[in-house]
Amino acid sequence: MNRIAQVIDQFGRSVLRGVEEMGSMLLLLISAIGWMVRPPLKLRLIFKQMEFVGVKSIFVVLLTGTFTGMVMALQGYYGFRMFSAESLVGSTVALGMTRELGPVLTSLMVTARAGSAMAAELGTMRVTEQIDALYVMAANPVKHLIVPRIVATVLMLPLLTVVSDFMGIIGGYFVGVPLLGINEGAFVKNITKYVDLSDIYNGLTKAAVFGLILALVGCYKGFNTKGGAEGVGRATTEAVVLASISILISDYFLTAIMF
Amino acid sequence: MIELVDIHKSFGKQHVLDGVNLTVEQGKTTVIIGRSGGGKSVVLKHMIGLLKPDSGKVLVEGTDIARMGDRELNEVRKKFGMLFQEAALFDSMNVAENVAFPLREHTRKKDREIMEIVRENLHSVGLPDVESKMPSELSGGMRKRVGLARALAMRPRIILFDEPTTGLDPVMTEAINELIIRTQKDFNLTCVVISHDIQSIFTVGHRIAMLYDGKIIEYGTPDEIRASRNPVLVQFLSGNLEGPISVL
Ligand SMILES: Nc1ncnc2c1ncn2[C@@H]1O[C@H](COP(=O)(O)OP(=O)(O)OP(=O)(O)O)[C@@H](O)[C@H]1O
Ligand SMILES: [Mg+2]
């Protein structure tokens, strides 16, 4: 009896904590939006973050996109060959990349690269009192630290996703046409036939939402870090895990709404 | 003028401040002394609204900042400068940008003018050649002096110093004390200084307050403090192991 009560108690606590955390994150987002619309916007800081989140992620995104497209073509080929429908490989790769894998994999890579860095950087600033120093100098940390990161990530993720989509299709093409000998004309024709512009748009919208999620979670975890170097480590891990999970869960709901 | 009225503050189960009453007089330097870990930094952070008391009032020029919203608090903070115990320099910016930060934030001065002020302030803390260095490339004492330059850059009316001379060599300690005394006098500033350096508290401070056991147990002019018979204070100033303050 006691054991059961304990388990329920534990469960209730973690649910409450989760709800509380979501509430605080929402409040942080609202405050960030409030600062976004209040000039002056810190353009220099936004550009710096865009470089970090966007430009410096291009290589990983390029690589993951290409190989994802390649492996999809390979897997698709063996499946479609059973029905002699190899020419559909191209459109499968293209649809998979634009709708799902482009935005999701890009966001997960950027979470690992930049979301973690946001948590670590803000966490360090918290534990070394740099955030307090901002307050003391009457400079709002949300405006200085969080708004640039969120804006930059939301802007850059769709762009990175375009890179990923494109490279995935190219990768698929190279595996499909020269390597596996699928007819080039059919491969390309099916892509243009089955992939709508809306598939691409929706995928890019997803990417922007994921960007918002990963930046918000990274900033939130970093901003609320407690307890020295260990706390910074914990914040970083939690940010990556929570952002990744949130991206995958919200992906389901976004997909359900969009397609 | 800053007035702390019956401030209580706990962190979890630990009661750090247990009814602190302290008046920081306008245009004077008040030194706070007390044991390491006794809550001096916590007191200082209450004065600028970084920490909110569990109960009690923090009156800055008559208004209670403990119950203020962010926007109002920001306005009040513009009157303040603060040196953090660990300097709290922005490690993404170099030294010059650190010192320039408040000027860029709150003034419309031209870049050239700002750099002039930066140079002047760094010079006054004895750091003429470090402008383009990053904080991680500085020693602890140098970082602290950059923090000092940053706190002074805006010429605020109230400055809070958390151990401005800890970790500096004796000569530099003297120089920084001189700097604090001179700036205080020249601009008629209200200063609060936390210090462990018994010699300099008597030269820097117009008023000295001793924090012990979560309360201000003694307050007075340097002469009054020297003459005090309070056994805690006597033991603290003499650094004696025997007495009411138990160390181990
Ligand atoms: N943000 C905080 N969260 C939890 N505990 C805190 C916090 N800030 C301070 N404390 C605790 O309050 C007590 C007083 O800390 P404070 O930093 O004010 O000491 P201090 O008098 O400045 O010491 P020192 O002379 O060593 O700097 C310490 O025991 C510390 O553990
Ligand atoms: Mg301290």
Attribute tags:
heterodimer; A: 259 residues; mainly alpha; 9 helices; 86% helix; 0% strand; globular; B: 248 residues; alpha/beta; Rossmann fold; 4-stranded antiparallel sheet; binds adenosine-5'-triphosphate; binds magnesium ion
What does this structure look like?
The complex is a heterodimer of chains A (259) and B (248). Chain A is mainly alpha-helical. Chain A has one domain. Helix content of chain A is 86%, strand content 0%. Chain A has 9 helices and no strands. In chain A, helix 4 packs across helix 7 (184-194). Chain B is an alpha/beta fold and 248 residues long. Chain B folds into 2 domains: 1-79 and 157-248, Rossmann fold (3-Layer(aba) Sandwich), CATH 3.40.50.300; 88-155, no CATH class. Chain B has 9 helices and 10 strands. In chain B, the strands form 2 sheets. Chain B has a 6-stranded mixed sheet, sandwiched between helices. In chain B, strands 2-1-4-5 form a 4-stranded antiparallel sheet, covered by helices on one side. In chain B, a hairpin with a 2-residue loop joins strand 4 and strand 5 (63-64). The mean pLDDT of chain B is 92. Chain A binds chain B through residues 121, 124-125, 128-130, 132-133, 135-140, and chain B through 45, 48-50, 70, 74-75, 77-78, 80-82, 84, 86, 88-92, 101-102, 105-106. Residues 11, 16, 34, 36-42, 85 of chain B line the site of adenosine-5'-triphosphate.
Helices and strands in order:
The complex is a heterodimer of chains A (259) and B (248).
Chain A: H1 2-36, H2 43-53, H3 58-81, H4 89-127, H5 130-136, H6 141-179, H7 184-194, H8 197-223, H9 228-258
Chain B: E1 2-11, E2 14-24, E3 29-34, H1 40-47, E4 55-60, E5 63-64, H2 70-77, E6 80-83, H3 95-106, H4 111-124, H5 140-153, E7 158-162, H6 170-187, E8 190-194, H7 198-204, E9 207-212, E10 215-220, H8 222-227, H9 231-238
Parallel strand pairs in B: 3-8, 3-9, 6-7, 7-8
Antiparallel strand pairs in B: 1-2, 1-4, 4-5, 9-10
Helix pairs in contact in B: 3-4, 3-5, 4-5
The complex binds adenosine-5'-triphosphate and magnesium ion.
